């Protein structure tokens, strides 16, 4: 299983969207260099309010580019970085991967998937009605979160659009991603 990086984004200030860049640098154990969410402990405001000493399991946010086409069919226009992700991918079913999956990105970087992004009302503040497109229910009535996956940086390196992504699954039994 493999895919490609289509965009990279970061922002040093709290903002819902993140501007695209020619490259980003991942720092082991921290996240994206210069990004407001980088750090050993939580940086997302809601999590800091709960307990600022929690480990940061949301260092790098990845979204599959295929989601943009899906929400486009419902009349929404979303581009890379606009949902706050750091890395936009193509060709990998990110949501279907298990906890602990390693993504080898480019020449050096490695991230480990920790869980699903829990979409929040900020998505509707960005585009009214978009939240319903990225959160739904499956046939059994279970909640389905489609707004990407979260990860921690296991090995640093520079990541650029066009970089290959290789997927290394963890040992079985696999545990499905859940919100983190």
From TrEMBL:
Pfam families: MOSC (PF03473)
Domain MOSC intervals: 18-168
Matches recorded under InterPro entries: MoCF_Sase_C (IPR005302), MOSC_domain (IPR052716), Pyrv_Knase-like_insert_dom_sf (IPR011037)
Any coiled-coil regions, as ranges: none
PROSITE patterns: MOSC
A GO term, aspect molecular function: pyridoxal phosphate binding
Record-given protein name: MOSC domain-containing protein
Native source species: Nonomuraea zeae
């Amino acid at each position: 299983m493999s895919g490609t990086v289509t965009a990279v984004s970061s922002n040093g200030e709290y903002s819902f969207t993140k501007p695209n860049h020619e490259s980003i640098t991942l720092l082991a154990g921290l996240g994206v260099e210069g990004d407001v969410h980088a750090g050993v402990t939580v940086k997302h405001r809601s999590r800091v309010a709960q307990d600022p000493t929690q480990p940061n399991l949301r260092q790098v946010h990845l979204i599959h580019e295929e989601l943009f086409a899906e929400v486009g069919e419902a009349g929404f226009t979303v581009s890379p970085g606009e949902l706050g992700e750091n890395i936009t991918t193509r060709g990998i079913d990110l949501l279907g991967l298990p906890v602990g999956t390693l993504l080898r990105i480019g020449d050096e970087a490695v991230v480990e998937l920790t869980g699903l992004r829990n979409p929040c009302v900020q998505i509707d503040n960005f585009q009214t009605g978009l939240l319903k497109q990225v959160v739904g229910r499956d046939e059994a009535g279970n909640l389905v979160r489609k707004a990407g996956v979260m990860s921690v940086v296991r090995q640093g390196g520079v990541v650029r659009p066009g970089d290959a992504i290789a997927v290394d699954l963890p040992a079985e039994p696999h545990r499905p991603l859940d919100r983190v």
